[in-house]
Amino acid sequence: MSKLSAWFGGTFDPIHNGHLHCAREIASLLDLDNVTLLPNNVPPHRPQPEATAAQRVELLKCAIQDDPLFSIDRRELDRDTPSWTIDTLTLLRKEIGETAPLAFIIGQDSLLSINQWERWQEILEYCHLVVAQRPGYSSQHADNKVQSWITRHLTDAASLPLQPCGGIFLADTSLYTISATDIRRRLHLGLSCQDLLPDAVIEYIADTGLYRPC
Ligand code: ATP
Fold this sequence. Notes:
The chain contains eight helices and six strands. It is of the alpha/beta class. It has a six-stranded parallel β-sheet with strand order 3-2-1-4-5-6. The radius of gyration is 17 Å and the shape is globular. The chain binds adenosine-5'-triphosphate.
């Protein structure tokens, strides 16, 4: 049985303890050796991150510096064009081969907007989706067809390494009421983000003046 490899995409503007704690819990549940953080290249027609791509990578480096579980993959940032998740998954699948199990970690809010992703119904041809709980988001999709697609693919932790792709695993992670939007709002107001961000991330933000009060 091959080891499950896990990828966690996000804007990470900034990475916060909600991301990190969920990923660590999932790693423990699924016995993962590594979680690769994949910062997104945000398409120009979408609201742009406040931090530059280079700053978001620096924030990631600060966040994971003491934790060998994590690594960073810059491929989406290094590409000239914004990339869809499906394109990245296609490349990853080519790299790891057809039979290696691949997990893509998302939060419950992302699962609820999955039908807005480019070629969303093909995603499970490349990976499993491992979904972290997120407070305040419904456990059911509002669109019955999307919900029945989700239900059809539900699987359990033990089954994930047995197949390369095709499953949706709803991980019973703790609820973390932390979002990057709220962190940016707090920092703009000059409020503390102690407990919401790793110390090294707080220091980087203070040193660079990123998200400074406006
Ligand atoms: P924003 O508030 O700006 O939308 P965010 O906090 O959701 O940002 P992202 O970088 O957009 O952070 O999220 C990357 C992934 O992490 C998404 O799949 C999202 O669902 C998940 N995620 C973010 N915060 C949490 C959290 N507190 N609990 C569980 N999953 C989360």
